[in-house]
Amino acid sequence: MNKKIRSVLSDRKSRYIGMVIGFFYFLIYKVSINDFFFGATVRKFDVKFLGNWATMMFHSRGPYIWEPIGYFKFPFGVILNISPLNILLGLLVTVLVSFNVSLFVYTLFLPKTCRIPKSYTGFFGMILGFFTGFVCCVPTFLIPFTSLIGGLTTFFIAIRLYLIPIILVLLTYSAYSTLKRLPETIH
């Protein structure tokens, strides 16, 4: 299994595409949980951390969303809230999404002799992973579509508690099952 992971990660094209998608996924995730946004314009860089950051770090704003313990303000109004548990969860899902994308791209360009069926189960799990970033702020994400699918907002808010664990399991299973089907030696 380690050789297969190394061969996927050593492929430059799939690794690059996975990293780019992962970067944008993490950015969308941070925006959707309101940890990265645009605020008032400042002239200089500013950093501030709460005095009680150790107790606030574990204070939850909602399911799988934790309070920030500080922020970075950049010129032109870019504000990045620092919430270690949000960053940790976001990085975990981002790594899984990036690896699944890399694996998907890698298997697309394998020779036909590998006999890996071109199924989209891995791609399906990866696409579901993209929605975890939107699920935490479904009302904001669905505002343009409320006239069409307004009833789905409350549905997504109600099931949000279960979606992130399901996504973690689906992405992990997707990567494992695809890796299992890869041949041991790939040229």
Would you report the number of β strands?
A: 6
What is the tally of helical segments? 8
Outline the low-pLDDT stretches: 132-150
Order of helices and strands: HHEEHEEEEHHHHH
**Average of pLDDT:** 75
Provide the fold topology:
Blueprint: H1 2-10, H2 12-32, E1 36-38, E2 46-49, H3 53-56, E3 60-62, E4 65-66, E5 70-74, E6 78-82, H4 84-108, H5 121-130, H6 132-135, H7 138-142, H8 146-181
Antiparallel strand pairs: 1-6, 2-5, 3-4, 5-6
Helix pairs in contact: 2-4, 4-5, 4-8, 5-8
Please supply descriptive tags for the structure shown above.
187 residues; alpha+beta; 4-stranded antiparallel β-sheet; two-stranded antiparallel ribbon; 8 helices; 6 strands; 12% strand; globular
Structure described in brief:
With 187 residues, the protein is of the alpha+beta class. It has 8 helices and 6 strands; from the N terminus they run ααββαββββααααα.
